[in-house]
Amino acid sequence: MTKSNSDKIIPVIQELQEFAFSQVGSMTILRVLGYGLLLLALFDIIETFVPPSFMNPVWEFQTFGAIVERIPVTLIGLALVFYGELHARAKWELLTLRLLSWISLLLAILFILLIPVGVSNTIRLSKQSYNQISNLSQQQLSQAEQVEQRLSQAKPEQIESFLKSQGRSLEANSPQELKQKVLSEVSQAKEKIKLQAKANQSTQRLNLLKNSVKWNLGALVTSALFFIIWKTTNWARNK
User: Fold this and answer.
1) Is 5 helix (H, G, I), strand (E, B) or coil?
2) Side-chain-facing half-sphere of 136: CA atoms under 13 Å
3) What is the distance between the alpha carbons of residues 188 and 190, in angstroms, rounded to a whole number?
4) What pTM did the predictor assign?
């Protein structure tokens, strides 16, 4: 190699060395950020499980959704920690990387297993919500029927006196017509109770279904991503 050629190559080598050093610094920053995000995700998960209430479908369903919605932080943290593979690693990181790789597989299996639990809780909550609204509407209908029965047995003059004592008045040509109007209002109130119960059941079912689909599909995607991370970090487990 002539002197002129070596003079041209030396600056190139120096630029490559500077680039390599700058890359090491960038990787260190990204990895530290990754470890920090993993710690923050761990704190969030612990906070989500406290206080625990297993076998409670409401708590299980809401906790499941909270975990799925917060899992992107964990995925980003793992991606940053594994960035650069084994290049410029500290000795303590080798065991940590191997452990995180296997944890990724464990989480992939866990999120797949959570999907049937999420579906089961959706069905249980749907039935529970339906029964609660039905029971409440039945109580309201029962009260309305009792009022209707009492009004049917009351004299028109008594109804008129009662309305006046309550500061209410209905236009009627006779006490009997007034009684019929009051009974008509009670009948309309009963129909409103039934319609409102159906509307509430429909709204509750729709909201529950939307959350269930979002969280269960999120769990499926999360499981696939954790599996991909485990699959592509074979280098961490073999070293």
Assistant:
1) helix
2) 13
3) 5
4) 0.78
